[in-house]
Amino acid sequence: MAKDTNDILAQDAHLIQSFADLNALKQQGARTVISRAKGAYVYDSEGNELIDGIGGLWCVNIGHGNEEMVSAISNQLQTLDFYSTFYNFTHPAAAALAEKIAQLAPGHLNAVYFGNSGSVANDSAIRMLHHYNIRKGKPNKKLVLSRHGAYHGSTHLAMAMTTPGYSEGWHAASELVHHLRSPHHWREGGEMTEVEFLDALIDDLKQSIERIGAENICAFIAEPIQGAGGVVTAPAGYHKRAWEICQANDIKYVADEVVTAFGRLGHFFASEDVFGMVPDIITTAKGLTSGYQPLSATIVSDDIHEVISGPDGMFLHGMTYSGHPAAAAAGLTNIDIMEREGIPERVQTTGKQFENNLRGLMDIELVGEVRGSHFMMGIEFVKDRATKASHPAEAQVGLKVARACQKRGLIARPLGNVLILSPTLIMDAPMIDQIESTLRDAITEVAAGL
Ligand code: PMP
Questions:
Q1: Which residue, 70, 166, 355, 413, has fewest beta-carbon neighbours within 10 Å?
Q2: Does residue 5 lie in a domain region?
Q3: Pocket test for ligand 1, best of 258, 271, 286, 295 (most atoms within 8 A of CB)
Q4: Is 366 a domain residue?
């Protein structure tokens, strides 16, 4: 029997939500109940059809309600519902997916550790590097270089690697992490040109390594494009130069491709194809199963795999659901669909069109910067374009624009003064135009009321 919205909200009083003002939720209840989904759309409990402009949470890459995915997961559960990959056991789905990921991943990245979230993938990457360095007789080589504006997850260590603002109110493992400057030229570059700013960022990296000592640093972790930090692209050439410095200092480069892999930027992985470098570890999740099952992968280089599988003792790291059969089956079928339908290649055209259309919104005065790439975009609103001054937080500009979008049938994600768009990758030209015109109307309406 279908429940009505009030029944669901009464039950929802027992749910602790993620990244929410729990007090406001207690007073007002959840904003929207999403009840079902198909293709590029979701439907709320009142029956409203909404374009899923955020792809679930940057993850439903192949679109919702794909029946082939549902069958593959169901078939897997009927054959083998669960077995672990602990203590020398394995199963066909995890083995096949590990091989497939190794084939798709760049260069020497040929070994995969599965987890069930991006946070766990990043924690696992650092734990594996600690283990690697202990085995190499370098137990002090354990600190991590991250960056302001980063988002790497919500477990203890992943949150410590995330930009410091997220750890307020929590104890994070901050003694392990040093944050470098944000790579956001428009906000942080001052009077510098993009090239000068790039040099300043690279100097910051070099000086930090000198100050902390390369012998104490195991990893530099970076998203190719910062996502939850407001969709921030670094100056051209940044990742490659940072990677070269890491290589010269025996520091492993961890590319957090939780969002950027599996087609969102037009390739299975962005590190090599978009940014021209092959990291030592790629972490990914989200688009790996298009969100149909929780699954993450920590993909490591032959060198790391070789050392951690050496003769000196056990690899004491494991999650019960690592490589869960249903999640692995979802990953395999998702990749199969992406390859068969040429989804990453298609995004090279449709994603570019999406990006270009959104950049056209710069003609609205409230819009300070449109940034990102392909189907990973952010729009920052400003009070004054010349000074880049923001509206005060109480003005809730991002939230107001998101609400104005939703009223018009589009879900977008507010993040302070930024609006994030990361739709499914099955957008066609008319849908892209519709998102643009909805955004234009919503932003114009909010601007008029400020
Ligand atoms: N890394 C990045 C770049 C992310 O965007 C996220 C989540 N949005 C994570 C890690 C953490 O993933 P999860 O929420 O699955 O733990």
A1: 70
A2: no
A3: 258
A4: yes
User: Is residue 119 lining ligand 1, measured as CB closer than 6 Å?
Assistant: yes
ipTM of the complex: 0.99
Sheet holding 367-373, edge to edge: 367-373, 376-381, 418-421, 413-415
Name the band, by pLDDT with cuts 50, 70 and 90, for residue 313. confident
CA nearest to 223, candidates 158, 311, 301: 158
| Alpha carbon nearest to ligand 1 atom 13, residue | 118
Element (H, E) at 145: strand 143-147
CA of 268 to the centre of ligand 1 (A): 17
> Cα(160) to centroid of ligand 1, in Å?
13
Q: Are residues 257 and 332 in the same domain?
A: yes
Domain boundary (340, 370, 405) is at: 340
Confidence (pTM):
0.98
The domain in which residue 352 lies consists of 31-62+343-449
The verdict on the CB of residue 227 being under 6 Å from ligand 1 is: yes
- Taking the C-alpha atoms of residue 76 and residue 80, their distance in angstroms, rounded to an integer, is 6
On whether residue 13 sits in a domain, the answer given is: no
220 and 237 belong to one structural domain: yes
The predicted structure's pLDDT at residue 32: 95
Q: Are residues 332 and 357 in the same domain?
A: no
Mean pLDDT, the chain, whole residue set: 97
The finding on whether 55 has its CB within 6 A of some atom of ligand 1 is: no
Other CB atoms within a 10 A radius of the CB of residue 122 amount to: 32
